[in-house]
Every structure is written in structure tokens, then in C-alpha cells.
């Protein structure tokens, strides 16, 4: 560390308050302190950042291409990783300032939708901590994921303005801007670099995000001839490209914007990589892939494949087959979902309008690929399944492009990879068995324990005698020897209560609802989707409420059910589930007759920073997706690491979680993948409806007027999804099993110490779910890159 001590931190803060805001310490606002402190720290790491770049120059580098990086807040995490959190806290205390308030003023960088974007952020942290040359490339959306509000129980979306207090950690690098050409417009991609600080390491990696701008601020000629709006129109068209994360892409204009984003990302990033390569190595040859490997985070950046060929052939004058060979050794692809509707397919016609040369290249790749298939003896039907361009409707299938050219394809949890190999992508697996790999996801222990649960972190450090576990999470298994130590378990429970009190306070301030920290906190937070089955959870809670009303002496502990979820703005059913859950919460929370025995809170605007408050406070982590549908899940890992048993189906990474921590320390229920396969042919939700009066009672509330939906048939539609459209996600089939398993939770929760032991053993066994382990596997098995320590 470049001489960071109390004095120069203080003087740094004072200096930046003065030059940025004309303020002094006693008049500074929290956001001004946030910026001044951030700039002070940035100034101190710049040299190490430069040195890290130097260190990586002559070695193989990995690039993570991702349309999403869900970074959350930077300040607290950077303080932890720099190892100076406590020092800064002391300085702030001495100055009579509130560090916590300054941390809380920071807006989340919400440049992602959910798991896929957050995984990218965790990977960045692990890359720097493991000291590997890993750079992230993405888009600097001016507006990230929408802000969620509720009105009459319905979700409303507001624009997110994460930049309102500035973005002190990023540096705009105008000098490294690149030009990106579309058929109908040429724009400038300006890089903004954010340092990724390795935990207690001198390696500072880079996240480079592109902002799209016009080549000229405005067209002077137009302006001069007083065509003001035309002059600005060109600027707006360019600005729009990086304006907002995932525009609604149902219409043609939305699709075009989304494609422009994808092309901007890959074209600018590849030109950047090539510029650096040529500075080091001169002209491009097949050697390129000995120095560069690109991980495609889902299909969103797959246009990078034809774009690299275009650059190599058209600009660097390589032969097509050489360029294609380079691509075959450079790109690897990660699949994050088996849901067909999420696999990208684009009309070739859109490609023709935006980048005809890219379409031409895709067609050439495809014809080479098809002749290979022919020579291997595949028939026309099989070939059309593999084909990058769909023969019948002319659509370009991005996953097919990625798998046919890329050298590796990976799933994100064991079950997910098996499903890809054995069913979804079985034809591809038979064609290229050597390409398929599994890389079970992970989470960074820095943000998801060390930062968000300092109380538990300190206790773990005290028990283990050092902080090595933060960098080597498998060390948590050494805690197992305390699993029967009542004193340790009591202290562990005390910490859980502290975190629950903190969350209760936050919920009171933000949601206006009082919850009892001594009640059981059952938490389900994640994106809202039918397959994740928040609906099943809501129906269960409603049933519990009805039973409680019938029998006020029902033997259950006091419970608080917490939801957090954003629904895609255009996903009607997901939005109806938000409304239904809010209506249930309203009904239950306002019914004095149940004495507050159960409460339901749907927190608004669930985000990374909200997750940091929720995960440490959970008694139960709800992970109840239809088996086979959740590729991995990573929230499940965050809860486990903070000591909450998983209440879940055998799906995604839940399976590995339970394998590590034991079925006896979790609550597994419901249909398994096999059961679902067998049941699918003969499934009739009405059988369950007719045979289970409790289930019938709650489902009927959707159509009997118990709840009102502004007369727009939202509830009727939800009813239909279950009863008249075959209940695709097996909500009815799993209802009874969920209920029986909830009863087991209530029973187990009665024995405080036995409960504490279950929770504690989850912490002990969470080591495998560090993203450090995941990234090490990517390094060893896909990227073939080595640790490269910055020693300067
Ligand atoms: C996207 C969409 C968009 C349109 C509406 C339907 C739909 C359904 C699913 C998705 C998911 C896109 C990819 C994604 O975020 N996958 C998540 O990746 C995580 C990291 O690997 C993984 O833990 C989650 O299980 C997986 O859902």
C-alpha cells in the first residue's frame, strides 16, 4: 500500500472536499464525504493499478465479456479489500463523522438484472484476489435496472439514476476511445475504468465499461443553419445506445437498440484487445490465442465471434480460415439458463440493417460448419438443428454460433450441466463431448460475509485465530469442531439476533412495517419468475393464515415472511404475483385477530445492497424453483454462508449445497427432476385441486373476490395459469410437500441449540461456494492462465 496513514487520509478528504465542493469537514454532506473519501483512496491505488497493468502485459490474459455487471456499492467493499475499514471508521469517529451514513448514501451500480450480472461482479472480485489477469468488459448504462415502487400493491418502475452523486471510482479514458460502425451510423465508445481491488493484494484489476457517444457533440452545420433539434437528434441517437439496461425488446425498435448495445460492447472491446496485442506483439497471427481468451457471459456478447473475424479479415488482412481458427481457440461460452425463451434468436433481417458484413460472416461460418457436419454423415434434419441460421425462419441462433465456434461450453452447476449434456444440448454434446464442462457458480466471501456480516466475520476470525478464511474459504470447515460447543452456538445465535434487529430497523425505516426480530425470518429474494415460484410461497402463506384464523392455537412459532423481487416490466404474470403477494401481506398484517403471529413483508426495490442486509438476518433461505429450472442460483449460497438452512427443491446448486452441508441441516422438499419428467405426461392440476380443500381454498381467492385487481383480470389470468394452462411449474403438485416441510421447520425451530447447530454447520460447509474456487477452475480448465502477482 502506497503509504496510507491516518494523516494523509484526513488531508486527502479535506483536499477533495475543498477542490470539488468548496466545503470543509464540518459543513460537508454525506455524498460529498463519499466522493472525497473515494477519491482519496483512488489516488492511493493508482500506482498499483498501473503496475498491475504492466505485470499483465507479457502473459496470457482472460477477458470476461458481459452485458451485465451488477456491482452494487463500491466504497465499503473497497475498504474491506484494502484492509482499512476499521482505520477509516476510527478516523471518521475521531472527526465526529458517520462512516455508515456515508456508505449508505452510495447508490448501487445496478448494471445487471440478477444472477448473471451479480456472478460477473463476484468473478471480478475473485480474479483480483487470486491475482490473475482477468479484465471485465461491459456497458456503462446511464440508467441501470429500474427502481421499483408499489402502488396499490402493483409494481411501478422508475428510472434508476445511479450516477446522481457521481461515480468517483471510475476514470474516463478519452484517449482510448474507439469508433464503432453500424450500417446507418458511426459512434464513439468511450471507456470508463473501475479498479477491482484484490483482497489484501497489490493486484488491481480493471472493469472497463463503454459509454456510447456521438463522434461530434453536435452537428455544427445543422446547428448553424438553425436546425437545432436535428443537430441534437444525432447526439441522442448515439447516447441512446448506452442509455439503459435491457430496453423492453418486444418491439422492433427495442430489438434494434439491444442489438446495437451488444455490438457496441464486442466491437469496442475487441478493438481494445487487438490494439494492446499489437503494441506488445506486432502483427496478429495464430499466436493471438496464446495471449488472449474471451469468456462469453451467456449469448449476449456472442456477436464478438463474427466481429473478431471481421476485424482480422477486413482490417488486419488475415485469411478467413486463419481468423476462424483464432476464434476457435479464443472464445468460450457459458450457458446460464435452460429456459427456451431466454435463448437469443435474432431475425437475420435486423442484422442486415445494422451490420450486413457481420451477417455475411455468420453465413460463411455456417456454411463451413454445415459442410463439416455433412462430411461427418449428419442428415438434413440433424443439420438444421445445429445450423446457426434457422433454415425455416432465417433467424440467427446465438447459442449455436457460440457452441459451434467456441472451444468450451459450460453450465453453472452440476445438475444444470448434466441437463445441458443429456437433454437441452444433447445433440451438441454428442458432436463435441470434449467442449462440455461444469463450473459450479460461487460468490465472493468478501462482500457476502466479511463486509455484510462483520459481527459473524469477527467471531469466525476469533474462533480460527486468523483471517485466512476470507481468502481461503475452505478453512471454514475447521469451525466444525465447535458445532457442539454450546457457548459458541449461543454467541452465534446472538449474532443472528443482532443482524435481525438491524434488518428490522431498516425495514421499519424503508417499508414502514414493524417486524419482531424474535420471530422466524423466512426469506425469499430473487428476480420474480414463475419458475422460481414465489406464487407457491404466497399460496402457502395464505393457507397458513386461514388455518391460523380457524385455530388461533395453531402450534407455530411467530413468523415473518419476507419477499424481495423485481418483475420484468413487460412480464404480466410476474407483476400479478407481486400484486397478489402484496395483497396477502396487507390482509395478514392488518388482521388484529391473529395477534401478529405471522407477518408478510414484500420489500421494495430489492438490490445488491438490500441483499447485504437480508442474507445475514435470515433463519430460512427459500429456494423453491421447479426442479430442473434454476440453472444454479447464487442467493442460496449467500444465505448458506451467513448461516441459514436452505428450504428448497433439489434444483441447481441447492443439490450441491445439501451435499456439502447435509440433508439433516436443510429442508428439502418437492418433486425432483425425474419425478417431473414422469409426471409431465399425465399431470392434471385439477386432481390436486379437487383432493386438497386447503389448496382449493387459497386458489379460489383468485376468482372469488377475496382480492381485487383493478378489474383487469390479472387474478383470473393467474388462476388460469394454474388451472387451465396445465400449471407449467407444478405449483399444485408441490404444495403439500412444501407445507409438510414447513411443519418440520417449525418443529426444528423449537430446539434453539439444535437449530443453531444446523445453521452453524451451514457456515462450516460453505467453503466450496466461494467464487475464488470457481475462478480458479476457469483458470485451470478453460482459460489456462496463471497467477501473476504484482510485485512492483
Ligand atoms: C432471462 C429471461 C428474460 C426474459 C424473460 C424470461 C427469462 C428467464 C430467464 C432469464 C435468465 C437469463 C440468464 C440468467 O440470469 N441466468 C441466471 O444465471 C445465474 C448465474 O449463473 C444462475 O445462478 C441462475 O440460476 C440463472 O437463472
From TrEMBL:
GO terms for molecular function: 1,4-alpha-oligoglucan phosphorylase activity. It is an enzyme of class 2 (transferase). Its EC number is 2.4.1.1. Phosphorylase is an important allosteric enzyme in carbohydrate metabolism. Enzymes from different sources differ in their regulatory mechanisms and in their natural substrates. However, all known phosphorylases share catalytic and structural properties. This is Alpha-1,4 glucan phosphorylase. Keywords: Carbohydrate metabolism, Glycosyltransferase, Pyridoxal phosphate, Transferase. The lineage of its organism: Bacteria, Bacillati, Bacillota, Clostridia, Eubacteriales. InterPro entries: Glycg_phsphrylas (IPR011833), Glyco_trans_35 (IPR000811), Pyridoxal_P_attach_site (IPR035090). Belongs to the glycogen phosphorylase family. Its cofactor is pyridoxal 5'-phosphate. It catalyses: [(1->4)-alpha-D-glucosyl](n) + phosphate = [(1->4)-alpha-D-glucosyl](n-1) + alpha-D-glucose 1-phosphate. It comes from Sarcina ventriculi (Clostridium ventriculi). The keyword Glycoprotein does not apply. The keyword ATP-binding does not apply.
Amino acid at each position: 500500500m502506497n503509504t496510507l496513514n491516518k494523516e494523509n487520509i484526513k488531508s486527502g478528504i479535506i483536499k477533495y472536499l475543498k477542490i470539488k465542493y468548496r466545503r470543509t469537514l464540518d459543513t460537508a454532506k454525506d455524498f460529498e464525504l463519499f466522493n472525497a473519501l473515494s477519491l482519496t483512496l483512488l489516488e492511493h491505488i493508482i500506482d498499483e493499478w498501473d503496475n498491475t497493468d504492466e505485470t499483465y502485459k507479457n502473459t496470457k490474459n482472460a477477458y470476461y465479456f458481459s452485458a451485465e455487471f451488477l456491482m452494487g456499492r463500491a466504497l465499503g467493499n473497497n475498504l474491506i479489500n484494502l484492509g482499512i475499514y476499521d482505520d477509516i471508521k476510527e478516523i471518521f469517529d475521531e472527526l465526529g463523522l458517520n462512516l455508515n451514513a456515508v456508505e449508505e448514501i452510495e447508490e448501487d451500480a445496478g448494471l445487471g438484472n440478477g444472477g448473471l450480472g451479480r456472478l460477473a461482479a463476484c468473478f471480478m472480485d475473485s480474479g483480483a484476489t487470486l491475482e490473475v489477469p482477468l479484465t471485465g468488459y461491459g456497458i456503462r448504462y446511464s440508467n441501470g435496472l429500474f427502481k421499483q415502487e408499489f402502488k396499490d400493491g402493483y409494481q411501478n418502475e422508475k428510472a434508476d439514476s445511479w450516477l446522481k452523486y457521481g461515480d468517483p471510482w471510475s476514470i474516463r479514458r478519452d484517449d482510448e476511445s474507439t469508433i464503432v460502425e453500424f450500417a446507418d451510423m458511426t459512434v464513439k465508445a468511450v471507456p470508463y475504468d473501475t479498479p477491482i481491488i484484490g483482497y489484501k493484494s497489490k493486484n488491481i484489476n480493471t472493469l472497463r465499461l463503454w459509454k456510447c457517444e456521438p463522434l461530434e457533440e453536435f452537428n455544427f452545420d445543422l446547428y448553424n443553419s438553425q436546425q437545432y433539434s436535428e443537430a441534437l437528434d444525432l447526439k441522442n441517437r448515439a447516447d441512446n445506445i448506452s442509455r439503459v439496461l435491457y430496453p423492453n425488446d418486444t418491439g422492433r425498435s427495442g430489438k434494434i437498440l439491444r442489438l446495437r448495445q451488444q455490438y457496441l460492447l464486442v466491437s469496442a472491446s475487441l478493438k481494445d484487445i487487438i490494439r494492446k496485442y499489437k503494441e506488445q506483439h506486432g502483427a496478429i497471427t495464430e499466436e493471438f490465442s496464446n495471449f488472449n481468451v474471451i469468456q462469453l457471459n451467456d449469448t449476449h456478447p456472442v456477436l464478438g465471434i463474427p466481429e473478431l473475424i471481421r476485424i482480422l479479415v477486413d482490417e488486419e488482412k488475415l485469411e478467413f480460415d486463419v481468423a476462424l481458427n483464432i476464434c476457435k481457440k479464443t472464445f468460450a461460452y457459458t450457458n446460464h439458463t435452460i429456459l427456451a425463451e431466454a435463448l437469443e434468436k435474432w431475425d437475420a433481417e435486423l442484422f442486415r440493417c445494422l451490420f450486413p458484413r457481420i451477417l455475411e460472416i455468420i453465413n460463411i461460418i455456417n456454411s463451413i460448419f454445415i459442410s463439416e457436419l455433412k462430411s461427418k454423415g449428419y442428415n438434413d434434419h440433424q443439420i438444421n438443428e445445429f445450423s446457426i441460421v434457422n433454415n425455416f425462419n432465417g433467424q440467427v441462433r446465438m447459442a449455436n454460433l457460440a457452441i459451434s465456434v467456441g472451444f468450451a461450453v459450460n453450465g453453472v452447476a452440476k445438475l444444470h450441466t448434466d441437463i445441458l449434456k443429456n437433454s437441452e444440448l444433447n445433440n451438441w454434446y454428442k458432436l463435441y463431448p470434449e467442449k462440455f464442462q461444469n463450473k459450479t457458480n460461487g460468490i465472493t466471501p468478501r462482500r457476502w460475509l466479511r463486509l455484510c456480516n462483520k459481527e459473524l466475520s469477527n467471531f469466525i476470525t476469533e474462533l480460527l485465530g486468523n483471517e485466512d478464511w476470507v481468502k481461503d474459504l475452505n478453512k471454514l470447515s475447521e469451525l466444525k469442531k465447535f458445532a457442539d460447543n454450546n457457548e459458541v452456538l449461543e454467541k452465534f445465535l446472538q449474532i443472528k439476533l443482532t443482524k435481525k434487529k438491524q434488518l428490522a430497523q431498516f425495514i421499519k425505516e424503508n417499508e414502514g412495517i414493524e417486524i419482531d426480530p424474535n420471530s422466524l425470518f423466512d426469506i425469499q429474494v430473487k428476480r420474480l419468475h414463475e419458475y422460481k415460484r414465489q406464487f407457491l410461497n404466497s399460496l402457502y402463506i395464505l393457507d397458513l393464515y386461514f388455518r391460523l384464523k380457524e385455530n388461533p392455537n395453531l402450534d407455530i412459532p411467530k413468523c415473518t415472511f419476507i419477499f424481495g423481487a423485481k418483475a420484468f416490466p413487460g412480464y404480466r404474470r410476474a407483476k400479478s404475483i407481486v400484486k397478489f403477494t402484496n395483497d396477502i401481506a396487507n390482509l395478514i398484517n392488518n388482521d388484529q385477530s391473529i395477534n401478529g403471529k405471522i407477518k408478510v413483508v414484500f420489500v421494495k426495490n430489492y438490490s445488491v445492497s438490500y441483499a447485504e442486509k437480508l442474507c445475514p438476518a435470515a433463519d430460512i433461505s427459500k429456494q423453491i424453483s421447479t426442479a430442473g429450472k434454476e440453472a444454479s442460483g447464487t442467493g442460496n449460497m449467500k444465505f448458506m454462508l451467513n448461516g441459514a438452512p436452505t428450504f428448497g427443491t433439489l434444483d441447481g446448486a441447492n443439490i450441491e449445497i445439501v451435499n456439502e452441508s447435509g440433508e439433516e441441516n436443510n429442508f428439502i422438499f418437492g418433486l425432483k427432476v425425474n419425478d417431473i419428467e414422469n409426471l409431465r405426461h399425465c399431470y392434471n392440476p385439477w386432481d390436486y385441486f379437487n383432493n386438497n380443500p386447503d389448496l382449493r381454498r387459497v386458489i379460489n381467492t383468485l376468482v372469488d373476490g377475496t382480492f381485487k385487481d383493478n378489474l383487469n383480470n390479472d387474478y383470473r389470468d393467474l388462476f388460469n395459469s394454474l388451472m387451465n394452462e396445465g400449471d407449467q411449474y407444478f405449483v399444485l403438485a408441490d404444495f403439500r410437500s412444501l407445507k409438510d416441510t414447513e411443519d418440520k421447520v417449525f418443529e426444528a425451530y423449537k430446539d434453539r441449540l439444535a437449530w443453531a447447530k444446523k445453521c452453524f454447520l451451514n457456515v462450516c460447509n460453505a467453503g466450496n461456494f466461494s467464487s475464488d474456487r470457481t475462478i480458479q477452475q476457469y483458470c485451470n480448465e478453460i482459460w489456462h492462465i496463471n497467477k501473476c502477482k504484482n510485485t512492483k
